[in-house]
Amino acid sequence: MVVLCGPGGVGKGTVADRLVKEVEGLELSRSWTTRARRPNESNLAYSFVSKEEFLRAIDEGKFLEWAEFNGNLYGTPLPDHQGSTDLLLEIDSQGAHSIKKLFPDSLVVLLLSPSEDSLRERMRQRGDDEAHIDARVRLAKKEIASAREVADYEVINLDLDRAVAEIASMIYKARESKSRGGDIGRG
Ligand code: 5GP
To answer: How far apart are CA 22 and CA 27, in angstroms?
Structure first.
């Protein structure tokens, strides 16, 4: 289990897409959410469901973990395979805490932006208005502090190719260490 977490607007989605293309045996888990689809967002980005449907799935034990984030519900469905692939979860810090508890040998990577200004700029590019951005930056700071409690590694998304390569090598290293029966290191 590989967990990619970090504040909204840091580029987790882009990094996750690249990782599943470049790292063999890595599959992206598709989360469920009650959030409305954003304009221009792919309808495959999430399983977009109603709150009723989500609450029913909780009752039926369909999630590995779920959390409320910014007023919406998000959940990782139980994986439908027992196979040889690793699962990549792009989730918030509450989810990272849950997964680390369930799977202590999972690899948790915290993706960070090079600076607060660059985070604000990315949020603006996504179409957030200025008042909205201030609130999201405050939320981002909380997210980072909480994710730091469980992250094995922190990666700064200054250069996309480099961030992807760094995380890929962390995954290979964790696999190698696991196959030798060892723990993954914190760093
Ligand atoms: P967004 O609405 O911007 O797509 O996502 C908001 C936050 O929810 C992001 O930090 C994203 O990583 C997180 N998230 C997405 N899917 C899940 C999930 O299944 N579980 C949890 N705990 N968080 C998720």
So the answer is: 11
